Amino acid sequence: MIRFSAFGIPVTIQPWFFLGLFMIFGISGGRRAGLFAAVFVGVLTLIHELGHALTARRFGATTAIQLNLLVGWASYSAEKPLKRSQQILISVAGPFSQLAFGLGGLALVHSLYSDSIVSIDPVNHIVYATSRSAFLGGDLWRGLGWAGVVISLLNLLPLWPLDGGHVVMQVVRRFRSERQALRFMAIFSLCVVGIIAVVGALTDHATIGQDAQFRAQSTSLFDPSLTRAVWSQFQAFPYFVLTSSLLLLIFSGFSCIQTLQSLRQREVAVPAGTFDLQRLRPADPAAVVAELTAWTTGTPPLMPPGWEVSPWLKAHFALGVGVETRVREALADIAMPGPWTLPDPTRPELAALIPYIPRPLDVRDKQHAFSLARVLGNFGDPSAFLELCTGLYQQFGDPEIFYVAATHLARRGFDDDAVSWLRRAMVEIPNPDRAGADMAFTTLRPRTDFQQLISSLRSPV
Questions:
Q1: Quick one: which of 85, 247, 321, 358 is 20 to 30 A from 60 by CA?
Q2: Do 420 and 375 share a structural domain?
Q3: Which of the pair, 150 or 113, is modelled with greater confidence?
Q4: What number of other Cβ atoms are within 10 A of residue 421's Cβ?
Q5: Higher pLDDT, residue 288 or 403
Q6: Is residue 277 domain-resident?
Q7: Are 73 and 208 in the same domain?
Q8: Model pTM?
């Protein structure tokens, strides 16, 4: 595993990424041409993910990049949910960055090698005789054309889980729920890649002249016009789509089938009273029972020796009699040390107390502050909730708060942000079994990025 920073963004390269580059080296014919293709794919993949990451950072998100077997992804987590337009810009920034650098590289190669000595059949676009420099330029040209133009255009296709598919997904989500949008994208993508695969299998490439068009793309380096030379890369794109239809079917089709299978799973609601107590400090069972009973009955509890009524319960009683000053006074202590039990963050009565929480809040106790975060995660404004989570991490340095943020974002339907915060949590607390089994992430399981996250954590290094 290799770790470094690019423009202030953490980058992790898994060993499997180099295996993927070796596969590209072999598929591209090996030798110098294969080496160029593998190197360009590796560099432009990183540039692609930097495009995603830098754009997300421009919108105030914290970002990180990971490269794995034939894939890469940029994770990001923001202090408030990103707008749909911002998420679309993040999605398209990757392939457009890759395309821009690819076209820049093609222009440079054209300026260096376009005047090499060659002899070309203008009809069949075959090079019969050429200089040594022309062979070198041709290898560079083909590698850049494939890695910089073809792959970036493939990523812009409106198919799940490609970047173009994520753009369409955001548009569909404007009119449908997350699960409905996912189902639509999976079925639509399966139909499209199925049609492409059938057409690719039935097409006689030599008969329709696409082989000649491919050769024209390869030899266009020697066209004196840079515009015509670059345009030939785009003209050859349909040829690459048809000849790569099987790989496209496997990559996109398999992901869509997984998504549809996961969507068939019954969504499990989180019942009231269900929350993680494993990380909270032990409390006297009598104090817990007394506190919970008081919330149910509305009667002040008789606490055991050494224990007090929680500030939450004090505020609840004060609000019940309409004394708002006492409500604010009680809530000023919710993140302070004290011998009181933590509230059940799913109780609906807590929602009425949130507007009375003072800001800024004096935070001195981590467990009580984490309890506050759970309450805000259930009932508060998402922006205020994520702002608190970010502040708690900066103050206490406990990455568990990332997991808390991810679970509550998922339960409230902010699935994109939930995956981003979960990825950030798993970087510091790599526990795929916990994330895979947590019922809070039921709606995330059909997502490709969630599946890739769990898979990458379980992959041997």
A1: 358
A2: yes
A3: 150
A4: 27
A5: 403
A6: no
A7: yes
A8: 0.61
CB 222 within 8 A of CB 118: yes
Q: How many domains does the chain have?
A: 2
Q: Looking at the predicted structure, is the pLDDT value of residue 271 above 50?
A: no
* Domain end call among 230, 263, 296: 263
Q: Which domain holds residue 428?
A: 285-458
In terms of domains, do 291 and 209 share one?
Answer: no
Local structure of 61: helix, strand or coil: coil
List alpha helices for 321-445, DSSP H. 324-331, 366-379, 382-396, 400-411, 415-428, 432-437
3-state SS, residue 359: coil
Residues 236 and 328 in one domain: no
Q: Is residue 368 located within the same domain as residue 224?
A: no
Q: Is the pLDDT of residue 23 over 70?
A: yes
DSSP 323: -
Buried-exposed string 160-188: b where 16+ CB fall within 10 A, e elsewhere = bbbbbbbbbbbebbeeeebeebbbbbbeb
Place of tokens 């995956």: 419
Give the SS3 label for residue 44.
helix
Cβ–Cβ under 8 Å, residues 170 and 91:
yes
250 and 172 part of one domain:
yes
What's the farthest any 2 CA atoms get from each other in the chain? 97
CATH number at residue 358: 1.25.40
